[in-house]
Specification:
heterodimer, A: mainly alpha, 3 helical TM bundles of succinate and fumarate reductases, 5 helices, 85% helix, B: mainly alpha, 4 helices, elongated
C-alpha cells in the first residue's frame, strides 16, 4: 500500500512532460480496451445459442449508462490508443522522428479532436433520438 | 570503477524482438480494422439496430467472417501481449508473475477458440 502511494506520488511529480502523459494514456486506454474486448468476444460467442439468448444479452448494450461508457470510454480509448500507436510506429521505424515526438503528439491530439468531436456528437445525439 | 554500465547481456532468445515487431505490424492492421469496425457499427449501423438477425446476415458473407476473424486474432493477441508487458512492469514476485500470466494465457486460448468457433461454424 505504501509502495503504491509512493509510486503514485512519483508518477504525479515526475516531470516527463508530453512523453509521460502520452505513455500513461496509452496504457490506461490499452488496459481498458483489453477488459472490454474479453467481454465482447464472449458475448459474440453467444450467437451460438440463438436469437433468444443473444438478444437478451443486448439489453445490457442498450443501457443508457453503457452507451455513455462506450462513447466516453471505449470509443475515446480506442481512438487515442490507435493514433498514439501510429505515432510510436512512426518513431520506431523512422528514428529521425524521435526528435519531434512531442510535436508529433500535439499533431496527434489535433487529429484526435477533429475525428472524435464530430463522431462522438453524432453518437450522443443518437442516444436521445431513440434511433 | 567503470564510467559506464556494462553492456547488456545478449538475450537468450529473440522472443522480445519478435514481440516488438508484432506489436507494430498488428498496430497498423488494427488501426484500419478496429477503427473501421467501431465507426461502422456505431455510426453507420448504430448500437440500437444491432440484433442477432443483423449479425447472422453479416455472416452470410465469407468476407465479413474473414474480417471478424482478423479482428479477433489481431485484436486479442495484440491486447494479450500488451497485457503481458503491463504485468511484467507491475508484478515482481516470480510466483505471482507466473500465476497471473498463466491465467492470461489460458484466457487467451479460450477466447480465441470460442471466437473462432462461432465465426467458422455459425449457421442460421
Amino acid at each position: 500500500m505504501m509502495a503504491a502511494i509512493t509510486n503514485l506520488f512519483r508518477a504525479v511529480t515526475y516531470r516527463g512532460q508530453e512523453g509521460q502523459i502520452a505513455w500513461m494514456l496509452h496504457r490506461i486506454a490499452g488496459v481498458g480496451v483489453f477488459v472490454f474486448l474479453a467481454g465482447h468476444i464472449f458475448d459474440i460467442f453467444l450467437m451460438a445459442f440463438g436469437p433468444d439468448v443473444f438478444d437478451a444479452l443486448l439489453f445490457f448494450y442498450h443501457q443508457f449508462f453503457f452507451k455513455l461508457l462506450i462513447i466516453f470510454g471505449l470509443y475515446l480509448g480506442v481512438l487515442y490508443h490507435a493514433l498514439n500507436g501510429i505515432r510510436i510506429v512512426i518513431i520506431d521505424f523512422w528514428p529521425g522522428m524521435a526528435k519531434y515526438q512531442a510535436r508529433l503528439w500535439r499533431i496527434q491530439l489535433g487529429i484526435f479532436v477533429l475525428a472524435y468531436i464530430p463522431s462522438a456528437t453524432i453518437m450522443l445525439s443518437r442516444m436521445f433520438d431513440g434511433s | 570503477m567503470q564510467a559506464t554500465s556494462p553492456a547488456r547481456p545478449r538475450p537468450a532468445s529473440n522472443f522480445e524482438l519478435y514481440s516488438w515487431f508484432f506489436m507494430r505490424i498488428s498496430a497498423i492492421v488494427l488501426f484500419v480494422l478496429a477503427v473501421f469496425h467501431l465507426v461502422y457499427m456505431h455510426l453507420v449501423i448504430g448500437l440500437d439496430a444491432i440484433t442477432f438477425e443483423v449479425i447472422a446476415e453479416r455472416w452470410q458473407s465469407a468476407g465479413w467472417r474473414l474480417f471478424d476473424l482478423f479482428l479477433l486474432v489481431f485484436g486479442w493477441i495484440h491486447g494479450a501481449n500488451g497485457m503481458r508487458v503491463v504485468l511484467d512492469d507491475y508484478i515482481h514476485p516470480q510466483g505471482w508473475k507466473v500465476f497471473v500470466k498463466s491465467i492470461l494465457y489460458v484466457v487467451t486460448f479460450v477466447l480465441i477458440v470460442l471466437g473462432a468457433y462461432i465465426i467458422f461454424t455459425f449457421r442460421m
